[in-house]
């Protein structure tokens, strides 16, 4: 590997929640004496808890990061991935020297340009042009160096008409456009980008990824990129670091890390025991999903091949009909992108205890790579009783985990099925009294 430009050793960051001191003046003085004068470890941070927002704790100290170790070579593009609350943004703030570590140290060789959130490093009262010079000065550049890059920055940002307008009047998208253009074009050796790019439109995100790839491979600059869009991470980065509850759990090639992350993220929904929890369900319970299998329980799906979804329903009390529907939500949002028709599974009476199994086949080529939350519904449709009458609804607990080693441009998607909303054509073939297959 090329020489290391970032070295992180035993890095930890603790935050105190609730009361922001030790509780007494004598203990505050003791902390100051031990940590500031003697240079020892803070004794009041020896006991702390992992930063889990979904669970209550007994300590008012949480470790956002704990014992982080890794190094990054010159010219590497490295993705930092993990769930919300895993410590990604905290790590970038420490690397950018926005905040100081509690324990450990960071060695950085070179200037850092960071884009951590909308408006980072911008003064709202200054114009876009003035903020470009301000950011360059912060990086230690001379005025003539910034002037040489000015035209290129303004052209890339696409906000030329408003470049002399105070940035407090910019939209969030304009903020991000200009901020990224500044960070990418000014002469820093290391570029750190948080998921703030999600604010921009799709064309600008693609443009930014292309620019980051250019500065990494062509100019030899180091890139640290945080995103929940695994497709973008895979397209830009050669290596990825996976954070889980503030600790590094993987530091390998990008494909291996993404596969592991998506597997762990979606492993719970594939277990049958998951459906025993009625608290995550909606509906009156007259019939319930007892099992849902995607591609026979496989952890990942090839989007270029047909996807099989098998559902098993148990009738909990006598019903006179059973209809099924499913909907796909977007891989980068919760908005619906595709839906099946309302499918009649049975138009006759089904007695209590009846087990009904059926399969839905999603045609090949409809989806891109990424994680698609799925909405499953059984009940009576509006056409029968004037309103939808759900027996059971399981929403965004199962995912279609679409993974491919090919770029999206090479996957050969059917142009009649754009990324926008589509309908999954379906029909029923009866197999026997208890089983149906939907094609």
Explain this structure.
It is a single chain. By secondary structure, this protein is α/β, with parallel strands linked by helices. It folds into two domains: 208 residues, Rossmann fold (3-Layer(aba) Sandwich), CATH 3.40.50; 171 residues, abc- transporter (atp binding component) like domain (Coagulation Factor XIII, Chain A, domain 1). Helix content is 23%, strand content 32%. It is built from nine helices and 21 strands. It has a six-stranded mixed β-sheet, sandwiched between helices. Helix 3 packs across helix 5, helix 4 packs across helix 5 and helix 5 runs parallel beside helix 6. The longest helix is centred in the middle third of the chain and has 16 residues. The radius of gyration is 26 Å and the shape is globular. About 5% of the residues have low confidence.
CATH superfamily (homologous) name of the largest domain: P-loop containing nucleotide triphosphate hydrolases
Broad structural category: alpha/beta
Shape: globular
Strand order, main sheet: write it out: 6-7-8-4-9-10
Q: How widely separated are the two ends?
A: 51 Å
Total number of strands: 21
Secondary-structure element pattern, one letter each: EHEEEHEEHHHEHEHEEHEEEEEEEHEEEE
CATH class placement of the largest domain: Alpha Beta
Quaternary organization: single chain
Mean pLDDT: 76
So how many helices? Answer: 9
């Amino acid at each position: 590997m090329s020489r290391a430009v970032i070295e992180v050793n035993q890095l930890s960051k603790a935050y105190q929640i609730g009361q922001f001191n030790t509780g007494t003046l004598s203990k505050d003085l003791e902390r100051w004496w031990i940590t500031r004068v003697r240079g020892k470890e803070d004794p009041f941070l020896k006991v702390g808890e992992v930063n889990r927002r979904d669970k209550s704790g007994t300590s008012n100290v949480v470790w956002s990061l704990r014992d982080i170790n890794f190094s990054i070579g010159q010219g590497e593009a490295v993705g930092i991935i993990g769930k919300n609350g895993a410590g990604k943004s905290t790590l970038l703030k420490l690397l950018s020297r926005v905040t100081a570590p509690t324990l450990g140290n960071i060695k950085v060789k070179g200037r850092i340009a960071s884009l951590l959130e909308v408006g980072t490093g911008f003064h709202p009262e200054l114009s876009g042009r003035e903020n470009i010079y301000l950011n360059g000065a912060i990086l230690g550049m001379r005025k003539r160096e910034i002037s040489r890059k000015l035209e290129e920055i303004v052209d890339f940002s696409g906000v030329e008409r408003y470049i002399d307008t105070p940035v407090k009047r910019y939209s969030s998208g304009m903020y991000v456009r200009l901020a990224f253009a500044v960070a990418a074009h000014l002469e820093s050796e290391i570029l750190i980008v948080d998921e703030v790019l999600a604010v921009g439109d799709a064309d600008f995100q693609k443009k930014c990824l292309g620019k980051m790839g250019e500065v990494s491979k062509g100019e030899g600059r180091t890139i640290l990129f945080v995103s929940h869009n695994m497709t973008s991470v895979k397209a830009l980065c050669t290596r990825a670091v996976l954070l889980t509850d503030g600790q590094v759990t993987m530091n390998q090639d990008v494909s291996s890390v993404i596969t592991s992350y998506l597997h762990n993220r979606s492993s719970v929904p594939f277990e049958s025991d998951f459906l025993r929890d009625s608290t995550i369900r909606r509906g009156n319970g007259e019939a319930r999903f007892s099992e849902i299998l995607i591609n026979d329980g496989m952890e990942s799906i090839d989007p270029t091949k047909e996807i099989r979804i098998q559902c098993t329903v148990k009738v909990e009390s006598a019903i006179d009909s059973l209809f099924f529907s499913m909907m796909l939500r977007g891989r980068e949002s919760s908005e619906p992108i595709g839906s099946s028709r309302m499918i009649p599974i049975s138009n006759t009476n089904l007695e209590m205890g009846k087990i009904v199994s059926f399969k839905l086949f999603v045609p090949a080529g409809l989806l891109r790579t990424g994680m698609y939350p799925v909405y499953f519904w059984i009940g009576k449709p509006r056409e029968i009783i004037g309103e939808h009458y759900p027996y059971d609804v399981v929403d965004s607990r199962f995912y279609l985990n679409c993974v491919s080693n090919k770029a999206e441009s090479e996957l050969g998607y059917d142009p009649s099925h754009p990324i926008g909303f589509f309908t999954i054509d379906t029909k029923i073939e009866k197999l026997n009294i208890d089983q149906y297959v939907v094609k």
